[in-house]
């Protein structure tokens, strides 16, 4: 007996009635069979040994795809847990999910023991033995009661099972199950007997794995709660091939050199004083100047593009955030309330409610729409200390926030001009490798179908008009609106999410927003949320790492360093400084109180774009020696007027120079 299945390209394939996804891959081609790690059957990831049914839509997941890498990493995490339990019997193991570039697993070792660097080598060696043993991964389902008995010696697994059973109110973890009946849990057992709670899927056998490396050990509280046990987390990375692993490790080495936290200290830009608290940086003069340059450029371009700048306070009464829904949706991430004069105040987690109040401060006519409000507004979110990461994840962040209020028929045009403006602004900072993601309505959402369809169609239209490459993330939108996320690739190939454009279907209703239309009827405006940089702090971090600290000339706090060879060259060096300052250049003079070589090295370490040296011949001939950042060798005898003409176009940010209508 035969059945018919539909392949990823839409073609139909006739196969035996007992055909598995693995056998289907082999029928399609030997290379596909070798590279396959799982299958997506009717949109759900399944193990390769899953038997297919008539009419199934089947996509074979390969090891070099994003989903394939995730499965490789998840399976490698299970091998890590197995190795640790083998080496230290009695270990309690918690969760071990895949992450963006690898995996981790959390452990509680017997006797309060702590992992050492030597232990990582032992664990990695044992993992390679397990992989060489070609152990199979086999899925089984158990009842809740049988699962509790199965993991009777594993308290963290038991707690997860109890969560599944609804006996606890805490959020479910990565091991929770799909594809099992209510009241059941799924587990995976290796042929050696090691068993772990998991939803899967996994690779068929450990022999598929092997291109991995354990990276480091860190502390982690169980369920991220500092009042719960502190566990030891082993991080690792896993890839589809040794070549991909090697490339990733080289990228990590380069990323370490570019780490914005390290550069921030070396370049005297910012730091995080412990007296203030984690996630709250202070910016030093040079860092503050860079921020000011970024913000001033952005403000100028926003004004030219038809935005009106506003300013809103840092805190507000609780009633505002009750209306907006933030206290219902985001209270766990907000700073604790402050009680003053009989009222409760909160630091604002977002700027949008206050921008809505500006809109509602008086009646609005269709003639005022679209109304584009813009602010560099600082918001506060109490991120857990474990997720803080320099400027990239902070507790006080300044968003370049825009909220656009428009009539429904203006929505497609506004989104199109907005996305073009976003891309042009990012390119003005020297970024050019973009892609986008359109996130659509999730299963759990609010709002009418027609609203979601209209908003999603408008976002899709904007993406098509912009020409940017994009993918659709089905069901990944916020519960109240679809959105576009713009991602960029930096100089070493890492992907960063920067800008977000979101059509809000709920806030206008919650606040009762209206405008009087041309037919004298009252209508509700659409609202677009947009953060272009994401946050100034995070964008600052991205720029530092993208340029390895060597920011574009117009963003560099010092653009030219002038170095007289000897003291008797100071007068001419001062003339050079004066001429450059007339252009508006930011110039410093490093007097000859140290050896010339030391001063040149200092200027280069400070990432100064142009190091200018003046000596005897320069004084007599009106020239300079130019050592440009990144050049192989310095130039001698460059006429000062020529040097000034050469650098003047780079001293200020280049206007976008286009209309977005």
Topology, element by element:
Layout (H helix, E strand, L loop, with lengths): L1 E6 L4 E5 L4 H8 L1 H6 E6 L2 E3 L10 E6 L3 H22 L4 E2 L4 E2 L2 E7 L8 H16 L4 E7 H7 L4 H10 L19 E7 L4 E3 L14 E10 L8 E9 L3 H17 L1 H7 L3 E2 L10 E2 L1 H20 L3 E2 L5 E3 H7 L1 H4 L8 E3 L2 E5 L4 H8 L11 E10 L15 E11 L4 H18 L5 E6 L9 H18 L3 E4 L9 E7 L5 E10 L2 H4 L4 E2 L5 E2 L2 E6 L4 H11 L13 E5 L5 H13 L4 E3 L6 H10 L4 E5 L1 H6 L1 E6 L6 E5 H8 L14
Parallel strand pairs: 1-5, 16-20, 22-23, 29-30, 29-31
Antiparallel strand pairs: 1-2, 3-4, 3-5, 6-8, 7-8, 8-13, 9-10, 10-11, 12-13, 14-15, 17-19, 18-19, 20-21, 21-28, 22-24, 24-25, 25-28, 26-27, 31-32, 32-33
What are the low-pLDDT stretches, counting only 5+ consecutive residues below 50? Answer: 167-181
Whole-number tally of structural domains:
5
Give the C-alpha Rg: 29 Å
Oligomeric state? single chain
CATH topology-level name of the largest domain: BirA Bifunctional Protein, domain 2
Going across the biggest sheet, name each strand in turn.
16-20-21-28-25-24-22-23
Tally of separate helices:
20
- Architecture (CATH level 2) name of the largest domain: 2-Layer Sandwich
Question: Would you tell me the structural class of the helices and strands?
Answer: alpha+beta
CATH H-level homologous superfamily name of the largest domain: Bira Bifunctional Protein, Domain 2
The overall average pLDDT, rounded, is: 91
Number of strands: 33
Beta-strand percent range? 25-35%
Q: Specify the overall morphology.
A: globular
In the CATH hierarchy, what is the class of the largest domain? Alpha Beta
Task: Give the % helix.
Answer: 25-40%
The description of the largest β-sheet is:
8 strands, mixed
Question: Whole-Å distance between the termini?
Answer: 61 Å
